[in-house]
Design brief:
By secondary structure, the protein is of the alpha+beta class. It is built from 14 helices and 17 strands. It starts with 8 loop residues before the first strand and ends with a helix.
Length: 472
């Protein structure tokens, strides 16, 4: 099981919190273990409830009162299969010390085992993990902002192109190269990687450079990994390409590279049409505080309609190729996954992309793009809630949802009715139906899938409630 697409923090950072008093007693070095969350469970088998990447916390309540040979061996095996990267064992009230059998089992499987002292609550450990993750996300947002400012300053220097490449290499800790449409490399910055990696990067930049023999449109970006080095190539509007090779890929690197692509496209353009000059002037006006609606109309045309796309990855991966240069990817302060936003002509087909979830707005004129952006965000939320790869904006005249898909599933109907009547409370619904709250969650998720609708939408909930009232 793979870790969720969140920006993890080293387990060593959690151990360094003096207020927690945690102590590692088994497993590999904590500095090499990334933690993506914390979860408490006293189940004998926590595997079905783990996403992967968690610090799993337990006090051993699940352990049999009388010692049973092999119990902790099997428990450690289930923890490992569930994808937990570390196990925290609370001493007291069940055990006075961490069971030696568990220590040995974790050591054999390479699971870091932490002793949680009596004074430290599991909720305190979880809060510390989320605080550290929030700090990491904020630091990444600051890094991206500072890098974009540095790139803009570099573009204003007397030697702008090599200056931008130097800043890009420094800010990503890698090697950056500008490639001409003919394949030459007049400028580069950073330590050049080994020959095999350099050759692979040259081949990757050739993929995004236009060729007359291509039967299909040239992609705007491409990515690969060679000998542990992450490679990225981005098409420049002038026909050239930007190549980037880094040993470590951070969530904000794609956004930093995107800013460099815009600047390099402007810097390497020898001739500009009147339209290009007008667009460049409009961008400058916008940066200096011009009205957004007027700028969008000037750039995109007053009578053309566009769709906004929001996309998030299901696992760490490059942004999807949405067949448009009007794309931006950035870390999100409200979510662990980076958000890609794009503009496409309204007559362009939008199809699902493997490994990503997409939300698409209704067609909109440039002056209405803020509304379309909100529609795309709402559609993305619905797609994630229904576990669909793609969802379009639900217009106001969309027919109300029906319960036909639940006709032969009385347990789901009753669970949905109770859940809606109790304002979406998992605990209250579980008590009312005398079932476990995880069963409630599973049934409601199943209802959303079968009904193909977003149960987080208050309008949908209202319509379903009236539909359920009519069936009584």
């Amino acid at each position: 099981m793979t870790a969720p697409p969140t920006q993890g923090v080293p387990l060593a950072a959690v151990l360094a919190r003096a207020d927690l008093g945690l102590r590692q007693i088994a497993g590999p070095a904590a500095a090499d273990v990334p933690v993506h969350g914390a979860h408490t469970s006293e189940l004998t088998d926590p595997e079905p409830y783990l996403l992967g990447g968690e610090l799993l916390l337990t006090a051993g309540v699940h352990a049999p009162a009388a010692p049973v040979d092999g119990y902790f061996e099997e428990y450690a095996e289930r923890v490992a299969r569930g994808g937990a990267v570390a196990l925290g064992f609370g001493v007291t009230p069940v055990f006075d010390t961490v069971p030696p059998e568990l220590v040995a089992a974790c050591e054999r499987r390479g699971i870091p085992l932490l002793e949680v002292p009596p004074r430290t609550t599991f909720s305190g450990v979880a809060r510390a993990v989320w605080e550290l993750m929030a700090q990491a996300r904020n630091a990444e947002l600051r890094r991206v902002t500072e890098a974009q400012q540095a790139l803009a300053s570099a573009a204003a220097r007397p030697d702008p192109l090599p200056s931008v490449l130097r800043q890009l290499a420094q800010r990503t800790g890698g090697f950056a190269v500008a490639v001409t449409p003919e394949g030459d490399e007049p400028h580069h910055a950073g330590a050049r990687p080994p020959r095999a990696v350099s050759e692979a990067l040259a081949e990757l930049t050739a993929v995004v450079r236009p060729h007359a023999t291509h039967l299909f449109p040239t992609p705007s970006s491409a990515a690969d990994t060679v000998d542990g080095t992450h490679l990225s190539a981005y098409a420049l509007q002038t026909g050239g390409a930007l190549g980037l090779a880094t040993r470590v890929r951070s969530p904000g690197d794609h956004t930093i590279a995107g800013a460099a692509v815009v600047l390099l496209s402007l810097l390497t353009g020898e001739h500009r049409s009147t339209a290009d000059t007008r667009r460049a002037a409009t961008l400058v006006d916008l940066l200096l505080g011009a009205d957004r609606a007027e700028a969008a109309t000037e750039l995109l045309g007053a009578d053309t309609t566009w769709r906004v796309i929001h996309a998030r990855p299901l696992s760490p991966r490059p942004a999807p190729d949405l067949a448009t240069p009007l794309t931006a990817t950035s870390p999100s302060a409200s979510s662990a996954e980076p958000l890609t936003r794009a503009l496409v002509p309204s007559d362009q087909d939008v199809t699902p992309h493997t490994g990503h979830v997409l939300g698409v707005s209704a067609p909109a004129l440039p002056r209405d793009l803020p509304l379309a952006d909100a529609q795309a965000a709402h559609a993305l939320t619905r797609a994630r809630a229904t576990r669909s790869p793609l969802a379009h904006h639900r217009p106001d005249d969309t027919p109300a949802p029906t319960l036909a898909a639940l006709a032969d599933k009385p347990a789901l109907v009753e669970t949905l009715r109770t859940w809606l009547s109790l304002h979406g409370s998992w605990e209250s619904t579980a008590l009312a139906l005398d079932i476990h709250r995880n069963t409630v969650r599973q049934r409601i998720a199943r209802c959303g899938t079968l009904l193909d609708t977003d149960l987080d939408d208050p309008d949908i909930r209202m319509e379903l409630w009236f539909a359920l009232r009519r069936t009584r």
